[in-house]
Amino acid sequence: MKIGIDMGGSHVAIGIVNENGKIIEKFEKDIKTVGDQAKAEISTYIIEIISKIKENHNIEKIGIGSPGTPRDGVLTNLINLKIKEFDISSILMEHFDIPVLLKNDAKCAGLAEKTYGASAPEETARRSRSAD
Q1: Using CA atoms, how far apart are residues 116 and 55, in angstroms rounded to an integer?
Q2: Is residue 50 within a helix (H) or strand (E), and if so which, with residue range?
Q3: Residue 70 · residue 103 · CB < 8 Å
């Protein structure tokens, strides 16, 4: 199993994703703080949810999609949250010892569409639809 995290402009969504790319459980939280308080709120929430998920699932990877410009595992320029830099990857890897991948959210959406959506190879698309 993998965990996908969507860091939006004012929310965090966390999903457990199976080998077919199907979200099997989802958690969401609105972020009502900014700056360092937002970093603490987001980190605490993600750690809490992943800890709960790990009670019942073996997690291989954590993927994070976020607006802004991710660089070397660090989120940068999260304008709505007034965060210039946020090293969420190191926080999560240190806490869980699970690889963390970080990409721009638009690139994540395109990759998901190519892999599991209408642009997916026929076999992958058929397997993904049968998981519903």
Answers
A1: 27
A2: helix 35-54
A3: yes
Q: 10 Å Cβ neighbour count for 131?
A: 12
CA angle 124, 128, 131 (to 5 degrees): 145
What is the CB neighbour count within 10 angstroms for residue 20?
14
Across residues 96-105, what is the average pLDDT? Answer: 88
pTM above 0.85, yes or no: no
Written as six digits, the tokens of 27 are 């958690």
* H/E stretch holding 37: helix 35-54
Backbone angles phi, psi at 40, to 5 degrees: -65, -45
Dihedral (Cα; 29, 97, 72, 74), 10-degree rounding: 30
Is the distance from CB of 4 to CB of 63 less than 8 angstroms? yes
Q: Rounded mean pLDDT of the chain?
A: 85
Distance in angstroms (rounded) separating the CA atoms of residues 34 and 38 = 5
Cβ 96 vs Cβ 54: under 8 Å:
yes
